[in-house]
């Protein structure tokens, strides 16, 4: 008698897999990677590969040491590594990404049980960790976009090779980031197009709003991320820029620099949308993204740091379980339970 | 025509590939009945029927062989003429053991039917439906006379011709080939229920069926095109799609004034009321790339899956045999079970067809896809966690009991979590622990 495979229904499934989702995110980050190389030269690519490699290596090693099933094939470590790289300035020495990636993977993701179980976004926590550990390296010399024509493609390689004093030299030629200009009241808004395309100071993946938008829209179209998160996040920041600008006599002047500058788009499209660390209902996502936008704006305008996206997302990550509790989905045909347990 | 302009639907759900082209254009033909049939005495939800014949008895087509043993139970009739050979216990398609009547088919098909009804009243139709052993023929096999006796007055009858499961086309063929009879059946049902309004819901991937049915549509019996989306044919979803009424949790459709029955059930009622023919035969789809001769057949109860596989030429590359549709049907380990009143289809699926289901199982990544596709708005990932923690109270609080087991969650899960299994475990746990 024939024997056939027996398993529970459903017997068919769609094509989406975990690794497939992660690969889509990597594809969506490609424009930002290309932009980073275009503006900062090959040292940017070197940092990105280093980050991805260390993240994958750290996860593989952890699984091996802890005798767990190998999970690097799901590509999520690669996504974490690349996101962390895009959060780094073009001037960091090579050991920074290695330590940052390993920290993000081991301490933020794997120790909590691996994919889906971490409560904070590994890339963001990795960045915040680096910010606290090497504050100067992570913020001071942002690195300005280079000119390829006079051998600039390898400019940052040469600086790093020359050692610490050279980085100081780099600092001398760097531009202020749009956001620091903004809070210092000196931002004129004449460089908006530059900001949109990416020819300004900033971390590797943050500078080109265009590249991030291409990737973000791709993720929304492919239904990898929920549009509510970036739209609410960015919308909230824009709203606060309007209010803050209005109070400072320039209601509209602050909106575009606030939206295009800093890590907002990278955070809103790629980090706040992380599945594990964001709420599970649509309402919850809107609340979460609003919180991200609110905290970002407060830090930017009133805090001591010029940028607040990372801290905002991290704080909201922590609140996610509570948001999920507060904004539960009610089932189809939900009947409110009366106090005595009696159904209405 | 204005009444079919608007396409209706419910919220959430999934869009699996229809795969209906394999069998859709093959007209219904009578399946050659083998020389021996084994008819299950439990072809319905509820108490199994009690044997009404003895070994050695001569039976005709339409002889009562199993007597209903309660209100929620159903009569079983012989599908062939011949001699009762023995009673055996064997596995049914849903995995339970049941008593089967084995009848040697004399090939004469002598018929002995009930007398057709002449005077249609609510009572006479209900009595006839009960007597003829009619059960929900969409696959749920709930005794139809129970559904036609709602505890509260109803005002609308909904006929489910959505046929939202992939592959299956028997209801579609029925709509094309037995259109007038279906309407006669619906009229009898309306008499039984005392309702003045009926709707036939058909998914819009079957425009030919919508057109055929629309010819007979009236002010009272309307044809409603529905958006093609799974599970459009789920009772509560269908009621919402057509009437926008929401069946409260734990309540029955009748509580919102609606009764839903399958289109094949309407046809069976036509046969029982106007021809006196009890329920012993049904339209069934045989499909999937694992069979060389797919089609739609009139199959007499008691034909074994082995008989179907032989006639439709089962191919060696068949990996899964499914009784019912690929979303909610039952995978069979062998071909021993017999067809019954609820066997809407038998699918022979190759590895390639179920391969998409062979995604690697990994940890839940919290993407919430399961929740955003659940037609009942449940949160399967949280219910799964409650089940794993053996926390029945938490599972109940997450409304696990409302799960339809439609499979949308598992269908979309990128980590290929066995979510439907978790839902079933949750229900079992809640019942056992009595929370």
What topology emerges from the helices and strands here?
The complex is a heterodimer of chains A (344) and B (435).
Chain A: H1 18-40, H2 42-65, H3 76-86, H4 95-109, H5 122-133, H6 135-139, H7 155-162, H8 164-173, H9 178-183, H10 192-197, H11 209-221, H12 228-247, H13 255-260, H14 264-271, H15 282-302, H16 309-326
Helix pairs in contact in A: 1-2, 1-3, 1-11, 2-3, 2-4, 3-4, 3-5, 4-5, 5-16, 7-8, 11-14, 12-14, 12-15, 15-16
Chain B: E1 29-30, E2 36-40, E3 50-51, E4 58-59, E5 64-67, E6 76-77, E7 82-91, E8 97-105, H1 122-131, H2 144-147, E9 156-160, H3 170-177, H4 179-193, E10 197-203, H5 207-216, E11 221-226, H6 235-243, E12 258-262, H7 263-275, E13 281-287, E14 295-300, H8 305-311, E15 318-323, E16 330-332, E17 345-350, H9 351-354, H10 369-373, H11 380-388, H12 392-397, H13 408-412, H14 419-433
Parallel strand pairs in B: 1-14, 9-10, 9-12, 10-11, 13-17
Antiparallel strand pairs in B: 2-8, 3-5, 4-7, 5-6, 7-8, 13-14, 15-16, 15-17
Helix pairs in contact in B: 1-4, 3-5, 4-7, 11-14
């Amino acid at each position: 008698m024939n024997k056939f495979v027996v398993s529970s229904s459903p017997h068919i499934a769609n094509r989406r897999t975990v690794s497939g989702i992660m690969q889509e995110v990597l594809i969506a980050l490609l424009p930002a990677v290309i932009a980073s190389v275009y503006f900062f030269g090959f040292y940017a690519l070197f940092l990105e590969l280093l980050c991805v490699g260390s993240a994958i290596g750290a996860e593989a090693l952890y699984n091996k040491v802890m005798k767990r099933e190998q999970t690097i094939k799901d590509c999520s470590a690669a996504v974490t590594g690349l996101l962390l790289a895009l959060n780094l300035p073009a001037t960091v020495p090579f050991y920074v990404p290695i330590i940052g990636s390993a920290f993000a993977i081991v301490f933020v993701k794997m120790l909590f049980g691996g994919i889906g179980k971490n409560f904070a976004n590994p890339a963001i926590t990795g960045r915040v960790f680096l910010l606290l550990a090497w504050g100067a390296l992570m913020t001071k010399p942002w690195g300005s976009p280079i000119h390829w024509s006079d051998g600039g493609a390898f400019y940052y390689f040469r600086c790093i090779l020359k050692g610490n004093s050279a980085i100081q030299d780099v600092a001398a030629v760097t531009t202020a980031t749009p956001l620091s200009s903004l809070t210092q009241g000196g931002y004129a808004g004449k460089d908006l197009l530059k900001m949109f395309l990416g020819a300004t100071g900033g971390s590797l993946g943050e500078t080109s709003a265009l590249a991030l938008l291409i990737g973000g829209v791709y993720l929304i179209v492919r239904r990898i991320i929920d549009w509510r998160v970036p739209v609410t996040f960015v919308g909230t920041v824009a709203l606060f820029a309007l209010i803050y600008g209005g109070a400072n006599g320039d209601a509209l002047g602050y909106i575009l620099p606030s939206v295009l500058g800093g890590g907002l788009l990278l955070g809103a499209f790629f980090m706040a949308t992380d599945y594990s660390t964001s709420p599970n209902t649509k309402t919850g996502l809107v609340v979460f993204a609003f919180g991200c936008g609110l905290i970002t704006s407060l830090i930017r305008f009133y805090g001591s740091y010029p940028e607040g996206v990372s801290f905002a997302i991290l704080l909201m990550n922590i609140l996610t379980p509570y948001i999920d509790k507060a904004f539960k989905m009610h089932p189809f045909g939900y009947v409110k339970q009366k106090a005595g347990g009696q159904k209405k | 025509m204005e009444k079919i302009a608007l396409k209706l639907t419910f919220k959430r759900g999934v869009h699996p590939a229809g795969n209906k082209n394999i069998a859709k254009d093959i007209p219904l033909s009578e399946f050659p009945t083998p020389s021996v049939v084994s008819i299950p005495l439990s072809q319905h939800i509820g108490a199994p029927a009690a044997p009404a014949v003895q070994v050695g008895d001569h039976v005709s087509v339409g002889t009562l062989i199993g007597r209903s043993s309660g209100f929620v139970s159903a009569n079983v009739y012989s599908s062939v003429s011949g001699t009762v050979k023995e009673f055996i216990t064997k596995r049914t398609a849903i995995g339970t053991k049941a008593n089967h009547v084995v009848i040697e088919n004399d090939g004469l098909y002598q018929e002995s039917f009930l007398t057709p009804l002449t005077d249609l009243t609510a009572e006479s139709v209900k009595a006839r439906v009960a007597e003829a052993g009619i059960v929900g023929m969409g696959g749920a096999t709930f005794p139809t006379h129970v559904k036609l006796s709602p505890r509260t007055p109803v005002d609308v009858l909904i006929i489910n011709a959505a046929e939202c499961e992939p592959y299956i086309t028997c209801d579609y063929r029925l709509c094309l080939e037995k259109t007038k009879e279906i309407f006669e059946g619906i009229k009898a049902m309306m008499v039984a229920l005392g309702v003045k309004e009926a709707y036939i819901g058909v998914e819009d991937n079957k425009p030919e069926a919508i057109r055929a049915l629309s010819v007979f549509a009236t002010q009272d019996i309307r044809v409603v095109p529905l958006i093609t989306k799974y599970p459009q044919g789920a009772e509560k979803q269908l009621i919402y799609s057509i009437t926008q009424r929401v069946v409260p949790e734990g309540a029955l459709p009748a509580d919102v004034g609606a009764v839903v029955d399958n289109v094949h059930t309407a046809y069976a009622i036509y046969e029982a009321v106007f021809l006196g023919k009890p329920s012993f035969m049904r339209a069934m789809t045989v499909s999937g790339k694992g069979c060389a001769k797919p089609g739609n057949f009139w199959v007499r109860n008691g034909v074994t899956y082995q008989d179907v596989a032989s006639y439709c030429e089962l191919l060696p590359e068949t990996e899964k045999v499914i009784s019912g549709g690929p979303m909610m049907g039952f995978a069979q380990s062998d071909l021993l079970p017999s067809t019954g009143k609820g066997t809407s289809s038998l699918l022979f699926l190759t590895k390639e067809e179920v391969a998409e289901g062979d995604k690697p199982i990994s940890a839940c990544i919290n993407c919430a896809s399961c929740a955003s596709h659940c037609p009942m708005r449940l949160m399967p990932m949280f219910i799964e966690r409650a089940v794993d923690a053996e926390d029945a109270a938490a599972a109940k609080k997450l409304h696990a009991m409302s799960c339809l087991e439609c499979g949308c969650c598992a269908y979309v899960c990128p980590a290929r979590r066995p979510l439907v299994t978790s839902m079933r475990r949750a229900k079992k746990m809640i019942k056992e622990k009595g929370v």
